[in-house]
Amino acid sequence: MGFEGVKMAARRHGSGAVRRIALGFAATICLLLPIKASALQDTGSRSTAVEDGAAFAQIRGRLSKGQSVFLENRGRPYRIDGTLVFARNASLRGATGTVLLSDGDGAAFDVPPGATHVAIENIIFRQNGRSRTLGAVRADNFRLTGGGAVDAGTLVFSNARNGRVERARFENGVAANAIAITNASSGIAIQGNEFEGNAGFGIQIDNGANGNDISNNATQGNGIELVGIRYNAFGNVIAYNRAEGTGDNGISVTGDRNVVLGNHVSGNALNGIAIYGDENTVMGNVAIGNGQNLNPHSPLHNPQDTSIYAGILANGAFGGGGRNNVIVGNIIADDQAQPTQLRCVMVGQGYGRWKAATDYAARRFIYADGEIYQTENAGTSGTVTPSGGGVVTDGRIAWTHVRTLAGNGRPSGNMIANNQTSGCEQAPARAEPSGQP
């Protein structure tokens, strides 16, 4: 099939049926009732700050008592010093375009356990200090709508349920990630947001987080993936997102039993979609013209890179096994004059085996006698093969046990079928050796 045929197929590709299948994997997302807001008038006009101590105390006091605050858009920021702590049912709302500037080094806001049904609406957070945390959400039914954050740190969901972030924009060049979903958080819906210029992931999911719905988000240029799921998260849905121009893969999944459905990934530095985990479903996605590290005319070009990149990669890496994934019904193409997405679907080489007297970089994953280990620090290995759980040593480097992976550490059992391809090799290809020791 030619590239024009591929594009026509993409337009014909229905999403309704596969969407219904995918939602079976996700937790039910609770709808939040709106909270009525009261008005807090502008209390000062002498500077760009809310410099009146009584006014700031009023804001802090209302939120800490579970009440509502409304901020008018004065065309200049409101300035806060310290963390706003929300109580149950509290809400902070602003007119469209309202900016809240945080001077402190701590988080701009905190939603502690028990502070359920907190709402933030149309507030753009900016950070004057050095905090890497925008807000810590540790309660259920949190909702952030509109507004967003500019260089204000990471919004962290930790042991939270049924939260929602929608129609917001995150530009977080000073923080690792824009949004983190961690510590068994579930039912978090991140929907319809924009992520631009974040230093790390747009959204990272890890540490037992499950049943979360990441859908209809977009980036046209992010530091690394728009969405990344680590090896210790499972059962999440990544659907109908658009990842373009990222500095890594468009989307990566190292956890197990996740669904990657109907996403559009194009022009990213490395692979379009990278699946490093087990038993994931990758269906109905469109991957076009990725591997821009290899394009000398792209701002993402890396002249030192000689790798081979794919529209969809299946590989055991970063703690995942790369096994028993289903990769079906995707559209994968490259219409560039000099293609950079050199494989349509590619199966990687898996883990490098531990070797004695070998230099290892920090955070390297290795395979040793049916086990996967990772080191935090760079060093030269000793002479004793890592063995057992917890933190073990080879005589020189300390390795942390990640998981058991029977066999030889290679990806296997992946079902790859019924994908429509053009401009890259039609059949699944095996990747070049990774260069790992």
Entry keywords:
437 residues, mainly beta, 3 domains, 3 helices, 40 strands
Principal-axes shape call: globular
Question: How many individual helices?
Answer: 3
Rg, nearest Å:
23 Å
Q: Which residues sit in consecutive blocks of at least 5 with pLDDT less than 50?
A: 1-51, 432-437
The computed structural class is mainly beta
Which CATH-level-2 architecture of the largest domain? 3 Solenoid
Query: Span from first to last CA?
Result: 39 Å
Assess the beta-strand content as a share of residues. 25-35%
CATH superfamily of the largest domain: Single-stranded right-handed beta-helix, Pectin lyase-like
By CATH reckoning, the class of the largest domain would read Mainly Beta
**Residue share in helices?**
under 10%
Q: Can you summarize the main beta sheet? A: 22 strands, parallel
Number of structural units classed as domains: 3
Secondary structure tally: strands: 40
CATH topology of the largest domain: Pectate Lyase C-like
Overall pLDDT, averaged? 86
Biased composition (Polar residues): 415-424
Region (Disordered): 408-437
Please describe what this structure looks like:
By secondary structure, the chain is mostly beta strands. The protein folds into three domains: 1-30 and 162-350 and 421-437, Pectate Lyase C-like; 37-152, no CATH class; 359-404, no CATH class. Helices cover 7% and strands 34% of the residues. The protein has a 22-stranded parallel β-sheet that branches. Strands 3-5-7-10-13-16-19-22-25-28-31-40 form a twelve-stranded parallel β-sheet. Strand 33 and strand 34 form a beta hairpin. The two termini are 39 Å apart. Residues 1-51 and 432-437 have low confidence and may be disordered. Residues 408-437 are annotated as: Disordered.
